[in-house]
Amino acid sequence: MTNTYDLHNLTIETLLNRRSIRAFADEEIPADVVATLETVAQHAASSQYLNDWSAIRITDSKVAARLAEIGGQPYIAEAPLLYVFVLDEHRNASIAAAKGVDVDSDAFTLNGSYRYSQAQNDAVLALHAMETAAYSLGLGCVILGSLLNDVDALIDLLKLPKLTYPVLGLAIGRPAQEPALKPRMPRNIQFFENAYPQSSEDMLTTIADFDGVVHQYYDLRNTDRPVDAFSDQIAGNAVADMTGRTVGKPAARQGFRLDR
């Protein structure tokens, strides 16, 4: 079961060979590379040109160690280059206030659900641009959703002000491992034409075949056994305990009103 494609260039090959790297060489990332990666991130698309994201570069080993504790992944603290991307309406609220906007009024909208979701999108787009650039330079990365295990602790650690919220982390370094490419599902059950399929029957039949492909994949994090079938992973996550990862309360703490 393969996805076929005909066009090839360096950009496409970089993207098609993307894999998460969780072991890094003890090698500092040069300043010019850091500047390039950060500039690339700034060139990602931004909704309405609000530039409503920021990224915190972690250089303090104690902070990195605490992030590893929050994420439950020791390799986080070992990454030569480490970022936490945040959606950021704090900067824009400060600009608006300086222009005479009452940011405490009901007319203020940068704290609403639409801007929250768009700022989150902008942060992810910037992170992905940085990640792709890093791969193109021969580096490896892993995206760190695990940092959201304890959002309140993360907010406190990074001293995030009102109207900011952590989105994802990104660890970057020279790869010290070569994991196999993780299988991708067939395009025909992820790309649809004009409308979403009204029946899941064909989709589930294809997933049954895809389960076998995934089960043959061995993750470097646990090389002594094959990965669980895709459908088993989905079923497990469907009932997983998400305590601590809910958005509502910490977002309200940060001044967002997701009910409007």
From TrEMBL:
<feature type="domain" description="Nitroreductase">
    <location>
        <begin position="16"/>
        <end position="174"/>
    </location>
</feature>
<keyword id="KW-0285">Flavoprotein</keyword>
<keyword id="KW-0521">NADP</keyword>
<dbReference type="Pfam" id="PF00881">
    <property type="entry name" value="Nitroreductase"/>
</dbReference>
<dbReference type="GO" id="GO:0016491">
    <property type="term" value="F:oxidoreductase activity"/>
</dbReference>
<comment type="similarity">
    <text>Belongs to the flavin oxidoreductase frp family.</text>
</comment>
<keyword id="KW-0560">Oxidoreductase</keyword>
<dbReference type="InterPro" id="IPR016446">
    <property type="entry name" value="Flavin_OxRdtase_Frp"/>
</dbReference>
<dbReference type="InterPro" id="IPR029479">
    <property type="entry name" value="Nitroreductase"/>
</dbReference>
<keyword id="KW-0288">FMN</keyword>
<protein>
    <submittedName>
        <fullName>NADPH-dependent oxidoreductase</fullName>
    </submittedName>
</protein>
<dbReference type="InterPro" id="IPR000415">
    <property type="entry name" value="Nitroreductase-like"/>
</dbReference>
